[in-house]
Each structure stands twice: as structure tokens, then as C-alpha cells.
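Much of what follows relies on a compact textual record of a protein's fold. The record below shows the convention in full:
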Amino acid sequence: MLRALLRRLIKLLLWLTALSVLLVLVFRWVPPPLTGLMIERKIESWTSGTSIDLQRSWRPWNELPDDLKMAVIAAEDQKFADHWGFDVGAIRAAFEHNERGGSLRGASTLSQQVAKNLFLWSGRSWVRKGLEVWFTGWIELLWPKQRILEVYLNSVEWGNGIFGAEAAARHHFGIGASYLSTAQASQLAAVLPNPREWNAGRPGPHVRQRASWIRQQMRQLGGSHYLNRLRQADAR
């Protein structure tokens, strides 16, 4: 009986493994209809008794402004064009910082954030982190860099119930994502560490200062020239 149960367990794990890879492959071309984080936020609203209206409108790569693409790269993952899903140097620095105590520092790349937001749940655990590594590896293997950034910009949380660039632009600035200015794009990127507490449309001193730093980093990274590197990386 124990042997039969073990065989069934192994078979189930193999099916789940194949399904996870198939989902990653399908989402290379198909816009994900919803994300794990969106489901989590909805469940939170049910358990807390507070209603939440999830807002999200998919926008393809060519309708997303270059300034917003560069702003999130400058803010979240400046080595995005060069790494294979993990920034080893940043992980090592974060580990050393956390070992010294104080506030916890993360080192997630855009690829890792896509894996977590799309397939997993928030929170800190070794199980979730292990699954994040699994999905990140397959995303980097099966998706071009432009697709990773496209899915990120259409899935990231920018406020309570606000997901993706289009919903964020309309909620915070009353315009479509394609019409965002450089300043507005940098303000959206500036609130990403804490999008449910910080407001891109009504930024406080810290967000304004961070947005200014992001615009400086965008220029130093090369703007559209950096995005050309993504195309070159995808061609390799």
C-alpha cells in the first residue's frame, strides 16, 4: 500500500511539473488572464469583509511607453539585460545586509517578480522561494527579455486592486499608459517597493526624491539604447 501511494505521489508531482512548464510556455504568447497575486488580493478581501475591485487592462509591448519600461528597470533591476534571472551580486549583498540585522532587504530581479506575481503568493518561506527559482528558470529559458518585461508591466501591483500599467495610469493620472510622461513613469516606478501605501499620483517627499533618482538612472543606463540591448539579448 505504501509503495502504491508513493507511486501515485510521484506521478502527481510529474504531472504538476509538466503543467507548470506548459503554463510558462503558453504565457509566452497568451496574455495571462489573471495572476496569483490578483487571486490572493481577492481572497484577502473576502476574509476581511472589505470589497475590492480588481482593475487590469492588458497592453502589448508596442503600446507601453519606453519611459515606463526604463523606469522600472532603473528602479528594480538595472542588470536585467545581462542576467539569466538572478542577480548573484545583489543576492549576496542582500544576504550580508540581512545577516547584520535591521530591515530586510530583497534582491529579486524582474524575472523573479514575474514568477512570484504570476504563479505564486506573497510572503516569505523556503517553499515559495524554491518554487520562485523553478518558475524563474523556465521563464528565462522560454521567454525573450521583452516578453518578461511586457508581462511584468501588465501584472505588477500599483495600488489596492490596481494591476498593470494601463490601470495604474488611469487610476493615478487619468490617462492611458501610452501617454505617460517621463515624470509620471518615474513616479509609478518609485512606488513599487510599497504600492499599497505610497501614491504615484500624489507623491510625498520620499517618492518624489526616489522618482528623481530613477530619472537620473534612466539617463545613465542609456534610455532607448538599453532597450535595444534587450532585443539583442533576445536575438542571441
Residues 3 and 9 are 10 Å apart (CA to CA). The chain is about 60% helix and 0% strand. Residues 2-26 form the longest helix (25 residues).
